[in-house]
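Form 7-S
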Amino acid sequence: MTDTPKPADAVSREQAEDAVRVLLRWAGEDPQREGLLDTPKRVAKAYRDWFSGYALDPDDYLARTFEEVAGYDELIVLRDIEFESHCEHHMAPIIGRVHVGYLPDGKVVGISKLARVVDAYARRFQVQEKMTAQIADCIQRVLQPRGVGVVVDGAHECMTTRGVHKRGVSMVTSKMLGSFRDDARTRSEFLQFIGRKG
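Output:
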């Protein structure tokens, strides 16, 4: 089972919209201005989309596997899975790509399911390091392969639009489990597949 947080108290859509109105006033705006009248509704709707990962159990995506793979037991890599997330410290966007690899142990999963696992974790308030570990741990827990590798490359708007205001900077995190951690050749092959030097 995943570590999906459960809110202590449900918040109504009306309460969410009121909170947006408060933030608009705090920023110096008039929520009753024509251009802002529907903004609270739009923001609440956007939040439902941006944070839809809280309603998902990533383990479920990996539950259906295939064993008729003619004995295939070599590296499987899905590169350049685009993701959009939000920093839990400033609620600013994190946008980037995830690369996932695993060494199957008798069963494989449909590749779209790996992308869905990424989305389920990305569509929550996140810290990139935590998201990287969550994706790798989920794949290891459910598929039980011989090893898993996850590399995340993300641009953090909390760094580009506030604070130090540095553009063109991305952060790279990785989590290696099983043979990806223990076997330098497996790790190197994975990193080569995703265009990074081992």
